[in-house]
């Protein structure tokens, strides 16, 4: 393939529509940014997409914490059903949350909001998964953020369900 053909293959079509061909639109906007063609940018949609990226990182943090809190609720409300997979999931999601915060230090301003959202979701999911009434789980989180991040969950393999 010639250099011209390779370049043409990587160059998105001119005027790609945000609504009709999102992928081509993203490639075109990136090319315009790199070329310094700021006047030709689709500024409104580009700004919305950048904000969406930030929301996605926030939601990743909330999701990781939601899983940790969900398993904490299940361990506390159904200790006889605890499993090694819960402990593994808690450790993995704690690590994921740590990576999100390490990569996005600006999220530290929203930790309280993320924690509240995570617990809200964990409470609803715990009721669905355990079959217990929603009222069995406190409306406000019974754990501190510190406990969520550090409470040990060493599970004796002889004391868990398979």
TrEMBL record:
It comes from the Bacteria. Pfam families: DUF29 (PF01724). InterPro entries: DUF29. This is DUF29 domain-containing protein. It comes from Methylobacterium durans. The lineage of its organism: Bacteria, Pseudomonadati, Pseudomonadota, Alphaproteobacteria, Hyphomicrobiales.
